[in-house]
Design goal:
The chain has 362 residues and is mainly beta. The protein contains 4 helices and 30 strands.
């Protein structure tokens, strides 16, 4: 079965890179989220779990099984990117992925938690580690070595059968610039989980296209792509057929600058300010939750200055609810015992704070 799945993935990969399955977006239903939903967002009751001052390098927190604190650290000498602790006693359980260039080390780390799986992406080395949290907690000597995919320029990889699915840094279109680069949304690695770009694109767009969320759900046959720098989301099935697009709630008007042509092509960058839309996510069997900003990062600002909302969708992309959060949301995890979310926000001192947010019908 695995062999068949990998063969299928390789076929999809070849088709994708030829551009033949790039969907006709004008024929796909488009759902528009009204800006008014943000003004009417529900304010949730929140308990502050703490800033956890003992974790001086911490960037983000997640909670697993209502008892395990997962910490993502900034890179620091001889330190680990990921730590698991008892939520209540703060006792260390295990540390993962030391900063470094060794075989079980990383030079950067982006963490996403999807159900019972922790995805740790190292975009510098072009590698990803897929950690089963239950297996790790049963046996803390359980190790998952990072797997190299070498898709430099694609910071986020997720498991896709026996291969990996990544966002394509060359997928870009802009009406004002009259540019539509014919590149598919996704890259699929080959059977060896590696990838080499064979297409020469006119525009180098990595600066303005990547860092979105790729959310997989095998049970519901869905793949969600949420853009970081556009108020846009795309709903796919597992065969990468585009089913629906979602736009809004805030139309982020973006200005770009074009540099002169070089070996990598004509480089496109943001001009004046950087738009931010969807930042992070969490999931359960029936829903996915996305943190939303809908604002621009301007000179003198930091992420701590952003507003915060959490949008709740079912797996067909239908909006279920919208919650207001007192700060920029950097991580979300779902309680297994209560109708609650664990949310990392940045306070005014730019320090991550863990909140537990309740609502009658999350």
């Amino acid at each position: 079965m695995k062999k068949k799945m990998c063969i299928l993935s390789v076929v999809i990969f070849i088709i994708l890179m030829s551009g033949c399955v790039q969907p006709k977006r004008e024929k796909v239903p488009v759902q528009i989220l009204d800006r008014e939903l943000l003004a009417k967002a529900k304010v949730l009751q929140a308990d502050t779990m703490g800033t956890f001052d003992e974790f001086i390098y911490a960037k983000k927190f997640w909670v697993y099984a209502d008892s395990i604190l997962i910490v993502l650290n900034k890179k620091h000498k001889d330190g680990y990117f990921v730590e698991l602790h008892n939520l209540f006693t703060k006792e260390n359980i295990v540390k993962l992925y030391r900063f470094g260039d060794g075989p079980d080390e990383m030079l950067s780390a982006r963490v996403d938690m999807n159900g019972k799986t922790l995805l740790v992406n190292d975009f510098v080395k072009g590698q990803v580690a897929v950690v089963n949290l239950d297996s790790l907690l049963k046996n803390t000597t359980y190790t998952t070595l990072p797997i190299r995919h070498r898709a430099i320029g694609s910071p986020t990889a997720v498991p896709y059968g026996d291969c990996f699915l990544l966002e394509n840094p060359y997928c870009f279109a802009d009406e004002n610039l009259k540019i539509e680069q014919n590149a598919p949304r996704f890259i699929v690695t080959d059977a060896k989980r590696s990838y080499v770009e064979e297409v020469k694109y006119k525009y180098y767009t990595r600066n303005v296209t990547v860092d979105g969320c790729i959310i997989m759900n095998d049970f519901n046959d869905r793949i969600i792509y949420a853009c970081m720098h556009k108020s846009a989301m795309e709903i796919y099935d597992k065969d990468l057929n585009l089913l629906r697009m979602i736009e809004g709630p805030i139309d982020l008007k973006t200005r770009y600058s074009l540099d002169s042509e070089s070996d990598i092509g004509i480089e496109i960058s943001f001009k004046d300010y950087i738009p931010y839309a969807y930042l992070t996510y969490c999931t359960d069997k029936n829903y996915f939750y996305l943190s939303y900003v809908g604002d621009y990062l301007k000179i003198g600002m930091g992420m701590k200055d952003f507003p915060g909302w959490i949008l709740k969708f079912d797996w067909d992309g239908r909006l279920v609810n919208c919650f207001s959060v007192s700060g920029c949301v950097r991580a979300i995890s779902k309680s297994e015992k209560e109708r609650a979310l664990y949310v990392t926000v940045l306070n005014r001192e730019d320090v991550p704070v863990l909140l537990k947010m309740y609502e009658d019908e999350i």
